[in-house]
Amino acid sequence: MTSTTLAALATEVLTCAEGRGKAELSRRHAAAWLASREAGQPLPLGTAAPPDMPARPERPALLDPRDVPRRRPGTEAGRKAILHAVAHIELNAIDLHWDVVARFTDTPMPLGFYDDWVRAADDESRHFMLMCDCLEEMGLAYGDLAAHAGMWRAASDTAHDLPARLAVVPMVLEARGLDVTPGMIELFSKAGAVSAVAALQTIYAEEVSHVAYGAKWFNWLCGRDGLDPKEAFHDLVRRYFPGGPKPPFNEEKRAEAGMPPDFYWPLVERA
Ligand SMILES: [Fe+2]
Ligand SMILES: [Fe+2]
């Protein structure tokens, strides 16, 4: 085996700017780590200095969410905008998972922690490419529309705190994906968009495991530190994601991912 480390592989993905290039590199590096684990000779974890912000392509233009044009979801332009937004989320998610791998090597974790986030990064890489394929089918490429800036905000805010990162990214943001994806599938299904429906169904089925990885390792860290996971989760979300999660919740899928209702309902802001 070469002398590379997992942290170095993660940083290579984070510093790769081009979308499909990043996704392909991510898939190759995920395969290398998992093969080394299977062979019983895991690559060393190493340490790295991941960038504050991952490298990104020149396009799309990143705008303040308030400035991203809103299009009616029932129109073709609306559906293109949704797929473009999902592609943008998936590209961010590739970086989010590799960032967890590279950034927190000072916190001793079982190797299974790395397996989970490498697998999640591999899933996101496929999700991004699926979304690119759907966009291309509609005559569009990732980058052709504006996208939200500030999606890295949750990562920057929690760059010094692994439990906070797990609480905010997989357990709040990715759990939100479970809430909203069924509505998207219905929308594309009504429009007869066969490949978009298939791609979104794959994403929906696979995202449960990312929320579950978050819940699993958050609970693990709380158990190691003698903290009550529910209380710790409430504290961290109130501190780092003050808007809180928003209903309606997909209680069934959240339960499947190990998120009981008393984790998220008490965080809902009362109007
Ligand atoms: Fe995804
Ligand atoms: Fe995900």
From TrEMBL:
Top-level lineage group: Bacteria
Protein name: Uncharacterized conserved protein, contains ferritin-like DUF455 domain
Pfam families: DUF455
CDD domains: Ferritin_like
Regions of compositional bias (Basic and acidic residues) in chain numbering: 55-75
Region entry Disordered, spans: 41-75
Species: Vannielia litorea
Coiled coil (UniProt feature): none
